[in-house]
Design brief:
Blueprint (H helix, E strand, L loop, with lengths): L5 E4 L2 E9 L2 E8 L4 E5 L4 E15 L2 E5 L4 E4 L5 E16 L7
Antiparallel strand pairs: 1-2, 2-3, 3-8, 4-8, 5-6, 5-7, 5-8
């Protein structure tokens, strides 16, 4: 059963969809113009764009992604995004992000 949605950043809502110690699935819902501020963490992260358009920067490399696109963020890589068109990202983290519980 999914967890409730919570505010993550201005214009960004986060909802844990499933979790186990080895893996966590999280939906991030962005308003247009909202940002996932640059950050890093020790987890491997995969991101799938369910809807919307996003400009991602991962380890200094920037690219634009839309529905159906995905990327992988290596452990400890500085990454962030700007939402160009409102949408939803589905992120997977391994191991689980205990700070999201």
């Amino acid at each position: 059963m999914p967890f409730p949605e919570v505010d993550a950043d201005p214009g960004v809502r986060r909802q844990v969809l499933a979790d186990a110690p080895e893996l966590m699935v999280v939906a991030f819902r962005f308003a247009a113009g909202a940002e996932g501020k640059p950050h890093n963490h020790p987890h491997v992260q995969s991101t799938f764009v369910q809807s919307g358009r996003f400009r991602f920067t991962v380890a200094g490399e920037t690219r634009e992604l839309g529905p159906g696109d995905s990327l992988v963020v290596p452990p400890d890589a500085v990454h962030g995004c700007t939402c160009l068109e409102a949408g939803t990202l589905i992120d997977n983290f391994t191991p689980r992000r205990d700070d999201f519980l």
